[in-house]
Design brief:
Helix content: over 70%
Distance between the termini: 62 Å
Structural class: mainly alpha
Number of strands: 0
Strand content: under 5%
Radius of gyration: 26 Å
Order of helices and strands: HHH
Largest sheet: none
């Protein structure tokens, strides 16, 4: 396992010491956990930013938009059937969900 020397502002160190005492964990474990969480969230944000950029680029193309509409229209009856089933209605039941 690698070692990292880290300078912390005094107030942050006091908070870390208090949390370590409260949770019965050592400071290194708390910092390691926080860093792992931060890196996971950063990686997820970078992935989402990439996906959003690619989606925006794709949907700028009218052919892609039209294809997406066709797929959505194709699956609409199945979505409605699944919703009816989840809400306990039988297919073709005239009762509307908003009543």
């Amino acid at each position: 396992m690698a070692t990292l020397a880290l300078l912390l502002p005094n107030d942050l160190d006091r908070k870390l010491i208090a949390l370590a005492a409260q949770t019965h964990r050592n400071r290194s474990e708390l910092v390691r956990t926080a860093l792992e969480k931060f890196l996971r969230e950063l990686e997820r944000k970078q992935l989402m930013d990439t996906l959003v950029a690619e989606a925006k680029a794709a949907y700028a193309d009218e052919a892609v938009c039209q294809h997406a509409r066709e797929i959505a229209e194709e699956f609409l009856p199945l979505d409605n059937e699944a919703l009816d089933s989840a809400e306990g209605r039988k297919p073709g039941d005239p009762e509307q969900w908003w009543k």
